Every structure is written in C-alpha cells, then in structure tokens.
Amino acid sequence: MNTLEKCVELIEGQQKGIEGTAPWVVGEQLKELLWAEPELAGTVLKDLEGPGMGLADCEKKIKAEADRVRRGNFAYVSPARAEELIRAFYGLPERGRKAAAPGKAAGGKILDLADFL
C-alpha cells in the first residue's frame, strides 16, 4: 500500500460513522485534493496521525471562518476558501505551488551551516 492509499484509508477511518456531517465533507475535500496532488499525502498522513489534526479539528477552523463572515442567519465558506483553510491547517502549499524540498532555502540553494562559521 502506497502513502496515498494509507492516507485515504486513514481519512475514511475518521469518516466512518459521521457520514453527511461537516467533518465528513472535509474528508471528502481532502481526498480530492490528495488525488490531484498525491505528493502531499505524506505530509497529511503524518498530521492525521497526530493529536489535534483530525478531520473534526480541521472542520473547526472552517466553521470559525464561516462564523467570522456570518451575516445574520447566513454563514458560508466557498469550496475554494475551504481548500485554502484545509491547506493551511495541514501545512500544504497553495494550489499550483510545489512544497519546498527539505534542506533548501529560498532560491533553491542548499543552506550550508559552514558558511556561517
């Protein structure tokens, strides 16, 4: 089983028994994001396994945004804005941007600590 499959399995495990709820919808959107950008699955997998990083926790951030923009009885977060919040919550790059490779500084140069000595 590859990393993407493991991540989707973990998401679906968190979705079990909460079908149709807001956290379940977050899981659906997160799976779609990962199917489009499977290279992000490793980051999400590590986060999902940690405390305070589950689908329900992410949904709370989206709900907070909906409450922030609430107008009377109407509160709404667009799918695009929800994706931005999901990406921020799990530390993922913006859509269309690749994550920086570990050990690389801005500009693609490798940071060598010996340069500072």
How is the main sheet built? none
Shape: globular
**Which class of secondary structure composition applies to the elements?**
mainly alpha
What's the Cα radius of gyration?
A: 17 Å
The percent range for strand residues is under 5%
* Terminal CA distance: 45 Å
Q: What is the helical fraction, as a range of percent?
A: 40-55%
Unreliable runs: 101-108
Count of extended strands: 0
Order of SSEs, N→C? HHHHH
Count helical runs: 5
Which whole number gives the mean pLDDT?
87
Main traits of this protein?
mainly alpha; 5 helices
Provide an overview of this structure.
The chain has 117 residues and is mostly helical. It has five helices and no strands. The protein has helices at residues 3-15, 22-36, 41-49, 55-68, 79-89. Helix 1 (3-15) runs antiparallel to helix 2 (22-36) and helix 4 (55-68) packs across helix 5 (79-89). The model is unreliable at 101-108 (pLDDT under 50).
Topology diagram in text:
Layout: H1 3-15, H2 22-36, H3 41-49, H4 55-68, H5 79-89
What is this structure, in a nutshell?
The chain is built from 5 helices and no strands. It is mostly helical and 117 residues long.
